[in-house]
Amino acid sequence: MNTKDWVLLIVPIITNGILVYIFQYAFSIHIEKNARLRHNHYKIIEELHQQLSGLYNTCKLFADSISAKYESNVGNAFNQEILQYKELKMFYLTHKKILPEYVTSMEQICKEMENIHSELILIQENHNGIISSTTITATAEHHNKLVKILEQTMDKCGQELNSIYS
Predict the structure, then answer these.
(1) What pLDDT sits at residue 131?
(2) CB 154 within 8 A of CB 166
(3) Helices and strands, counts by H and E, the chain
C-alpha cells in the first residue's frame, strides 16, 4: 500500500468520527433542552395544582362556615377565598401560554367566582355590610359549580402530572 491508499483509508474514518461527534453533541443538546422544558412544564402544572387545591380548600372552609352558621368566620372565609382566587388568576395569566389546555376550566372558574363575588357584594350592600350564613345561601349554587370545576381541573392536573414522568 502506498501513501495514497493510506490517505484514502484514514481520511474517511477521521471525518466520519468528527461528523458522528458533531451529530451526537447536537442531539444531546436537543435532549437536554426537551428535558428542561418538560421539567419546567411539570413544575408549572404542579404549582397550578397547588393553587387549585388552595382555592378548593378555601371554598370548603367557606361552605363549612356557612353550614355551621359561624357568622364571624363567613366574612373571613370569603376574604380568604377572594385572595386565593386572585393568586390563582395571576398565576394562570402569567403562565397562560404554557397552559392552553386549561383555558376553558379557568374561564369557568373566573365566571363562577365573579358571580359569587357580585352576589356577595349585593348581599353586603343590602344587609348593612354584614355577610351572614342565612343571606349567603344564594351563592350556594355557584359554589357547588365552582367546587365541581375545581375538582375536575385538579384531576386533569393530577393526570397530567402522572403522565409527564411515566
Answers:
(1) 60
(2) no
(3) 4, 0
As a whole number of angstroms, the distance between CA 40 and CA 35 comes to 9
Joined together, the cell numbers standing for residue 155 give 384531576
pLDDT of 91-144, one tens digit each? 988 988 888 888 888 888 888 888 887 877 777 676 665 665 556 666 777 788
CA distance 7 to 118: 83
- pTM of the shown model: 0.74
**Which cell numbers hold the place of 57?**
380548600
Q: Which of 137, 93, 89, 141 is nearest to 115 (CA)?
A: 141
The three state secondary structure string of 36-56 is HHHHHHHHHHHHHHHHHHHHH
